[in-house]
Fold:
Amino acid sequence: MTVYDHPIFRIMGDRSLLVELGDEISPAVNQRVQELFTAIDRHRSKGILDLVPSYRSLLMIYDPLCISPDEIKAGIKDIWNHPDQFRVPPPQTVKIPVVYGAEYGPDLQLVAQYHNLTLREVIGFHTRPTYRVYMIGFTPGFPYLGEVLDDIATPRRETPRTHVPKGSVGIAQKQTGIYPVDSPGGWQIIGWTPVTLFDPLGKPPSHLVMGDRVQFHAITAQDASQWPT
Structure:
């Protein structure tokens, strides 16, 4: 089964409720998560403090003095039974320039060797798909994108780096993603983008949101140096 016939509820402490909508990572499950998130956010009840969507579930954080888990469940079931409330805005397609390899992508050679490919072939496979933004997490603005083609799906590094530069583009299994800020990380870094993905003063602060589409394209280091900031 991919998408559940009905939501599965799990109590997460005294002020959080997890709503599971499927049993695997897939566009179909993630679409239902986005739809439910959109419907609840538009008609948010008093006491719902935050909504955290992920690949296949939605975490609801609430004030137990204002609303009970049973009331939340009843509201979700009502939304679930009225799919006309599941309309989501059309996704934007964002083109992300990437400088691949060398000091910008120190693991590009490893990915190529792992799959017995040339560097150019890895770049071609990475820029071919249009990726779905499944969720934002790990660090502010970090987009989890999927899925990469099987030709370049590569495990995480055995030993994570203590510092991955802002803008680094990486692969982990069938996921690809972009580090929006300097941070530790264990993904295979194949390139770097000059695009700023997170601005705490921006509205919204994240350049990408759940449901968006991303297309990568290769640029040179010289192109990147002239990119507007």
Notes: The longest strand covers residues 3-11. The mean pLDDT is 92. DSSP finds five helices and 13 strands in the chain. The CA atoms of residues 138 and 148 lie 19 Å apart.
